[in-house]
Amino acid sequence: MSPGHNLQTHFDWVAAHDADARRLQHAFHAQLRAHFRHQIPEGESVLELGCGAGDLLASLAPVRGLGCDFSAAMIAKAQARHGAQPGLEFRVADAATADFGGETFDHLVLDYLTGYLEDIQLVLERLQAAAHARTRLHLTTLNTLWRGPLRAATKLGLVMPQPPSAWLADSDLLNLLELAGWEVVRFERQQLFPFGVPLVAPLLNRAAVRLPGLSHLGITLCLTARPRRAPALTAPISCSVIVPARNESGNIRAALDRIPTLGRGTEVIFVEGHSKDNTWEVIQREVAAYRGPHRVRALQQPGKGKWDAVHAGFAAATGEVLVIQDADLTAPPEELPKFYDAIASGRVEFANGSRLVYPMERRAMRFLNLLGNKFFALSLSFVLGQPVKDSLCGTKMLLRSDYERVLRRIAPFGDFDPFGDFNLLFGAALLGLRIRDVPVRYKDRTYGETNISRFRHGWILARMTWFGLWHLRCFSLRVAALPGLRPGRPSAR
After folding, report:
1. What CA–CA distance (Å, rounded) separates 48 from 139?
2. In the predicted model, what is the mean pLDDT of residues 480-491?
3. Is the separation of the CB atoms in 269 and 316 below 8 Å?
């Protein structure tokens, strides 16, 4: 047994006596490390409070990793194990009083720590000083349903003796995070089976724990939260509006007339997509004749597919905020200020248009398309872990800096999405960005015909949904691309 109930003394004792218990719990901790590696890319800065022997922090391979623990014995153990790993520092410090000297981190980790804190709210508030606007706080703790089994495991010697602790219900944690200025962007329960039995563990921990009913039984509560802060937008061009245009010659002038000024200045970039009509000639003529308030440019995409056009437009953009405006204008450009206000205020980090809130015009969307959109939205909401009502609306807005991070995050997936909607949503979800729908009124086309093939493209979307289900929800980030897809920038199709 550990000596007394003083927490610092207890964990000093644990540092010297936990070898057998750690061997028995190897699979449990390996599963937790997999969870954190899924959330935190290598090469970013990480602060872990209650780092113990430093195994989790070291496994994340941060460019700058600071591990703090109030147990000097634990820190000595961490130094001995991982002190030679580049970028890592271990420091004796109490979570309630630690001073980080103004340093901020990309990720803050509290792994099974909150139950041992005297004042959880105080620690969460103090962590704000170590966060910037895109920092993500990753917190794991015990599902209170498992307190009884934990006591039994302790008596059997499978778990180290436990000092008095406060394992809180998820509602209490959500409340404390909100009081401390954090907003939860993702919450789930994981680990039905904390043992390393082949086939059984993956089946229960990757699939069964996601099912309704069983999801409430996961051992570990996993929360990702963000600080409530508005981004600092200072560039002369606040927003770049990318207008992919293929066979849309009759909509170019209307797009220029109707796109509003967003922020201090707006840039409009038409990206022509190898049209069969005279769209490129019309774009060139209208850009040359334009005398309005926007900076207007035009280019032709190098490859094929909407994602290739969006990628080319975003690469050429100079604005701090990027948005896609489809050239068919069925999602009205007059709605764009709602998106911009949501992003600029910090209330939203990825603004996703939704055509399925307000009544739409009679010919705006065919019935089978409507059913398909509802199906993919429901599926994507499950995959992303955040509600999305309309995953396929073309209007999507985010910061340019977040878009660049999205590209890095989805690079292992390869070139799998010819449309771009799933690329952006998957990347935003993996970054823990707050995704919110912005309702738009969906209008009838006034010129041309849709470029979407209902059944052929529907099959592609179904494959991408399955791809996301497996690789996002099942933690398989070392991905093998789908047949015919390869890593890198969008390719010609």
Report:
1. 10
2. 36
3. yes
Spatial contact of 467 and 461, defined as CB atoms under 8 Å apart:
no
| Helical spans, DSSP H, in 199-353 | 200-202, 252-258, 279-289, 306-316, 336-344
Which pLDDT belongs to residue 480?
A: 33
H or E stretch covering 228: none
E strand or H helix that includes residue 221: strand 220-227
Residues 257, 200 share a domain: no
β-strands 45-49, 321-324: how paired?
unpaired
Residue 72's pLDDT is 96
Same domain membership, residue 254 and residue 214: no
Count Cβ neighbours within 10 Å for each residue of 153-189 and write b for 16 or more, e otherwise.
beeeebbbebbebebbebeebbebbeebbbbbbbbbb
What 8-state DSSP symbol labels residue 412?
G
Residue 200: left (phi > 0), alpha (psi -120 to 50), or beta?
A: alpha
Asked if the structure places residue 2 within a domain, the reply is no
Distances from the Cα of 98 to the Cαs of 50, 116, 300, in angstroms? 11, 16, 54
Q: Calculate the CA dihedral of residues 461, 463, 467, 473 and round it to 10 degrees.
A: 70
The pLDDT value given to residue 349 = 96
**492 within domain boundaries:** no
pLDDT recorded at residue 62: 97
What's at 484, amino acid-wise?
A: G
Q: Of 102 and 377, which is predicted with more confidence? A: 102
> What's the whole-model pTM score?
0.85
**Amino acid at site 202:** P
What pLDDT score does 363 carry? 57
Amino acid residing at 348: V
- Using CB atoms within 10 Å of the CB of residue 144, give its burial: 0 to 12 exposed, 13 to 18 middle, 19+ buried: middle
Domain with 35 in it: what CATH number? Answer: 3.40.50.150
Q: Are 24 and 44 in contact (CB under 8 A)?
A: no
Q: Do 204 and 309 share a structural domain? A: no
Number of domains, the chain: 2
DSSP letter at 203 equals I
Per-residue model confidence as pLDDT tens digits over 170-185: 999 999 999 999 999 9
Does 480 fall in a domain? no
Residue 361 confidence (pLDDT): 58
CA–CA dist 441, 449 (Å, integer): 19
The string of pLDDT tens digits covering residues 278-303 is: 999 999 999 999 999 999 999 999 99
The whole-number average pLDDT for the span 10-27 is 88
